[in-house]
Every structure is written in structure tokens, then in C-alpha cells.
Amino acid sequence: MTPLDTLSPSGAIHTSAERTSDGRLSTGHALILEDIRIDQGGRPLLSLDARIAPGEVLTLMGPSGVGKSTLLAYLAGFLAPAFTGQGRVLLNDSDLTRLPAEARQLGLLFQDPLLFPHLSVGGNLAFGMPRKESLNASGKGSRKETRRARHEKIEAALEEIGMAGFADRDPTTLSGGQRSRVALMRVLLSKPCAMLLDEPFSKLDASLRQEMRSLVFTRVQRLGLPALMVTHDAADAKAAGGPVIELGAQP
Amino acid sequence: MRLFSPTIRTIPWLAMALLSLPVAGGLAGILAPALGWLPALGGDELTLEHWRTLVATPGLADMVRLSLSAGLASSLISLAIVMLFLGAFAETRALALVRRLLSPLLAVPHAAAAIGIAFLLTPSGLASRMISPWPSGWDTPPDYLFPGDPWGLGLTIGLVIKEVPFLLLMSLAALPQCQAQARLRLARSLGYAPVTAFAKAVLPGLYPLIRLPIYAVIAFASANVEVAMILGPTTPPPLAVAVVRWINDPDLSMRFVASAAALLQLGVTLAALGLWWLGERLVARLTRTALTSGRRQAGDRLWAGAGGLTTLLAVLLLGGSLVGLVLWSLAAWWPFPAALPNPLSLHAWQGALPGLKDPLAQTALIGLAATGLSLVLTVGALEAEHLRNRGMAAWAELVLYLPLVVPPVAFLFGLVQLQVQAGLAPGALAVILAHSLFVLPYVFLSLAESYRRLDPRWAQVAASLGHSPASLFVRVRLPLLTVPILTAAAVGFSVSVGQYLPTLLMSAGRLSTLTTEAVSLASGGDRRLTAVYALMQLLLPALGFTLALALPRLLMRHRSGVLNP
């Protein structure tokens, strides 16, 4: 099997640099975590202040229970009511903190691939694509053209991860590695401005883990996405190559 | 779609209103007439006269005694059977099998089960035919009174047969919540024998979780009408049946006495609940030392045997009833000791078909409407929980059980009186709303567990991919819950099909469903026609469950992850 990171980029994924509406090429966004503090029932759980440059992966390491996943939930907009969070989440200048989860454009990758069982593989990818997704930059086109354009994007994305022709498959028939790759493509097709990785490799076996790491980190770098990863595994941090913050258990 | 969240958030309140207002209003609607005030029928002064008439009714004490004893005895026996079964069969394959059988068993309407039991155990029924002429030596049907024995034994059996599946279902749902498996394994590893381990380690955690369902069972059994009409004694009947007789008395002034009696029925049901509650305290006190005595073995073989035996008996009764119904519906000539009718004929079915059309259509329409309404309210209320990120308050759960604990004969009759006083015409809409009072709690109880257990990360993935709450509700949460939603709909439909009193009272007897027809036929002499109606009553819910099982398997056959989550 071809190593995945050498598969040709087909242009299915646009970088966030292409997103600006005025046509100017920007250099991607930085994800800024400004004085974040998370409390659990009035007791401080975790605090963090960081700036993640485009294409950089910041790794948070620490034992379970220090609130790593809670931090990601706060950033993504799903903080459970037992917790309270303070501090701002910014993409360059725009403040995400008050936005609902669906408007934040933070791509989330979980431990499990979480492919929707009621949709086909292609349906899962389409689910992630913005509604007005078409080939021509103006965003115009008949409904039929739009549908064809979406279809082509899905095929290209599948080809990019070595799964051409899998669009109509039931997700339950995929191997573990295939599911993880589809989950990654689903996030990328949603054109996130930054990535949040919640121990994304911890449930893969050793050989797949290596493959997925390079697949994810190559994409993050190529697309210039700032990424925040929480993990137990020092090898994850090493593969990411970015700065590492060690979180200790709070007294 | 900005209206999605506000709309969803109002639904729990709508559901609460639908459940509590009719019950409260209905009780008010019998309180005033019981004290003599119902201007529409010429009652315009407060008086205790109707209570005096009620108290002077011959046999009133027997009626109350019957309601109390049948209610408490059937609940106690049902609970004992369920607990013995769980103790004897926890963590075995039998449990998995029973779990699969439960929904169809629950779907058997009360009236159909009662008719089946009556046909099975009556002197000329299938049971005595099986042992005649050998070994019993009977050439003619033996001489005993069944159904309608004066002690209410038949009534108790009929109630037990329907209560066991319900309590079993509620217990099975509660077992994981009290970490039953871990408790059981721990106790077993400490050397406790299986049934003792269940009784000492699991039961104390399980009982509080199924207390509300048990109370619903007691309330139902102490105030039930249709099972009592078919299997209970007639002179005097249990109190709830007497109330219905007075309501239907052509002399409208009897409605004042009926109101007083309906209020008395409420008191009787509350008394039954109170007695049970006292019993709970007593048992808790008496068993406190036994729990920690360290005894590992307390007649385990015996209890396990009893559990197996009672379960077998219940299954035999239900199975025998069903076979008996089928045979009667196919019988032309069936002289006594013969075990099978000969020849078999479709005569009864052919004769019944023309008359079946209307009740069948009305049953289906009422059932679909009530189920649809209940499903919308249930899914809305559960989605609101999800949006608010907070579970249901304890008081809200009490409201859910309100129509199941307050005797329906009391509050439904009160609603009829309000209808009369307001000059509203009885009809299909009132019947559908009244059915929903009983369908909604069951739909909710059936769906809540699956809905709440749905992995929240599905919604998180969808939201982080840019989908709004409305979009992810329609495109992710609903499709993932296809199977439990359809099952809940089938449960709701079967509850509606089985309703007797709401149809009878809210339509003023003008709408006939399969159940109202079956109940009135049961008191007549035509066993063949009665059997046909009872079977039709079974068939309709069975059709619902078949569709609920088959549709997703057909439509989503390439999405095995939805079918086997």
C-alpha cells in the first residue's frame, strides 16, 4: 500500500488561505487562547494562555482528570453545565467565545471516528461540506451543477486517502484505519479555520497510528491550520513537532 | 430555523399541561357534583344527600373490599413473580429471550388478555377440556363459577397476567441504573448464592427505581374497569365497575351518586397506595438485620424453583389463552370434553367481517392520532432536555405518572361532566386527547432511555461541522434513533388500541372501537364472535410492532450501524 502522505494532493481541500471573500491571499489564522480558565463547581481545574500559529500543532499533555478534554469542549462550545469557563477564544481578531458551536468553524477530531451510521461514506463527507459548495468561485450554478460539484469533491477526497469508489459504502463495513481517514476528510471538507484533536490516535493500533499521524499533521501544515492536540502519548507530541505544554494534576 | 430552539423549549410545558390539566380539571369535575352542584342536571345547591344514597347502597363494603384486595393482591403477586424471575434468571440466556418477548406481551390489550383467561379457565374452557375425560373423569363441564367468582380470584389472575410484563420491562430498564451486574458479581464472589445475592445486593437498589411503576400498577389494578367487567364478580362488582354502571344509568340524577362513588374510588386507590407504603416500611424494618446477617444461602434452590415455576405458569396461561381464542374463533361445533373443535370453520370470521370494518377503522385512526401527538410531544420534550443540557426534574416525572396513578374512572368522568356543563359535544377529538393521556406516558417511558443514552458526540461532531441545532436534530439525532422511535410508536399505538374507558366515556358511547366491542361482546354469550374481536385486538398492535421492526430493516438495510448500535 502506498504511504498515505505521498498520495497526490488533488486539490479537493482548499486551504483556509483561500477563504477570504475579497480575493486577497491571507496567510491563515492564528488560534489565540486568551487567559482561559476552567472551574469545576467553583474549584479551578485548568488555566491556559497560548497562541497557535497557522500550521503549528500545540500539544497538551497530562494525566487523565486534569481537564484536557474539558478544555477542548470549552473551545468547541460544548462545555457541560458542571463546569464554568472564562477567557476568550480568538481566530486572529475575531472572537469566537460568544458564538454557538456550529458557527465557530473549529474542526474536531475525536478518539473514535464517529462516522454517522445512517449515512453512506460519501454522505458522511457531504455532511461536512458547506452547503454552497461548487467549483466556480462565484458560488453560483444550477442545483444540478452544485450536486455534481459536491459529488466530484467527495470522489477527489476519497481518492486522496486511497479510498476511491467507497462513496456508497456503509461505514460499518470499513476497517478501523479507513474510518479514521474518512473522519479526517469529513472535518477538512468542512473548511475549518483551526483543528482541535482530542487524543485522535489513542484507539488505533501501532501501525495505523504512525500512518494517521503523518496524514493528519501533513494536512494541518499544508493547509496552514493552527491545531491544538491533547494526548497521553509522548510519541504524538514528538510527531506533531510543535510546542508541548505539560499539565500537572492540580493540588 | 431560528425558531427551532424556542419551539422545542415550549414542548415540555405543553406535555406537562396535557397530562396535568385534564386530571386536575377532571377531579374538580366530580368534586362539585359529588356535593350536589351540577346546574346542567338541575343540581344547584350543596348537599350531602348523594353520599347518603351511596353509603346506603347494598354491597358497597364488598365493592370496596374487592377493589382493595384485587388491587393489592395482584400487585404483590406480580412483583413477587418478577423479582423471583430476575433472581433466578439474572445473567442467563432466558433473560435475553424474555426481553425480546416483552414488547409484544405488553402490546396485548387488557381486555383481550382477560377474554383469553376467561375462555381458558371457564368450566367448559380449554384447561378443563385438556384434563377431561381423563384424568378428571368429567363428561360435562364441572360446576364452579368462573369468570366472576365472588372472591375476585379470576380478576386477580387477569390483572397479574398483564402486570407481570409491565413490571418486568420497567425492572429490566432499571437494572443497569443500579449497577445490578457489578453488585451481583460482587455478592457472588463473596460467596452468596444467586437468588440470595440478588435479594440482598440488587433488590435494595432496584426497588426505589421501580417504585413509581409499582404504584401505577396498584392504582391501575384497584380501579380497573374492563378486566373487572370480564373476569370480576358481578353482584356486587368491584367499585370502579359500579361507578361505570351508575354513569350509564338512564336516570341522569344517578350521576350525582356516580360522582360521589368516583370520589370514593379515588379514596380507595389512595388507601391501597397508603397500605402498600406502610407495607414497604414494615418490610424495610423487618429485613434490616437480615441484609447484613452474613447468611449466604436462604432457601436458594426453593426460591429459584419458585421463580421458574411461576414464570412457566404465567407463560402457560398466556399461551393457553391465545390458543383458546384462536380455537374458539374457528369453532363451529365444539362439545365439551373434545380438546379440539371439529370441524374447523371460518364461519365466525366471515360473519364478523362486515361489522368489523367501522370499529377497525376507528381504532386505527384514534390510535394513529394519539400516537402521533404523543410522539411529537415526547421527542420534543427529550430534545429540549438535550438543548438545556439538563435532565428531567423529579416533579416532572411525577406528572408523567399522574394519569397512571389517579383512577381514570374518576377524572375521565369529571371531564365528561365538565363537557356536559360547558355544552360541548362529545366526539372523536375528545377521545383522541383522552387516549393521549395514557399513550404519552408509555411512549415517553419507552423512548426516554434510548434518547438520553445517544452519544452526545454525534451532535458535537455535527455542530463542529457547521450544522445548526435544527439541522442536526433532523439530520443526525432523529435518523440515529429511527429504531427506538418506531418501537415507542408501536408501544403507544398498542396502548391506544387497548383503551376502553376513555373511548366509552369521552364519546358518550357513540364511537365503537375493537376494545369497546370486545368488552361488550364478552358479557354476551357468543364466544366465537368474542374470540374474533379479541384476536383482532391483538392483531392490530402486532401489526404495529411488525412494521416497527421491519421498516428500518427494509429501508436501512445498507446501514447496519443504525440497526445494531
CATH architecture of the largest domain in chain B: Orthogonal Bundle
Overall pLDDT metric of chain B: 90
Order of helices and strands of chain B: HEEHHHHHHHHHHHHHHHHHHHHHHHH
Name of the top-level CATH class of chain A = Alpha Beta
CATH-defined fold name of chain A: Rossmann fold
Helix count from the secondary structure assignment of chain A: 6
Please give the alpha-carbon distance between the first and last residues of chain A.
49 Å
**Distance N terminus to C terminus of chain B?**
30 Å
- CA radius of gyration of chain B is 25 Å
Tell me the number of structural domains of chain A.
1
For the record, what CATH class of the largest domain in chain B applies? Mainly Alpha
If you compute it from the alpha carbons, what radius of gyration of chain A comes out, rounded to the nearest whole angstrom? 18 Å
GO molecular function (chain A): ATP binding; ATP hydrolysis activity
Organism (chain A): Onishia taeanensis
Region (Disordered) (chain A): 1-22
Domain ABC transporter (chain A): 30-247
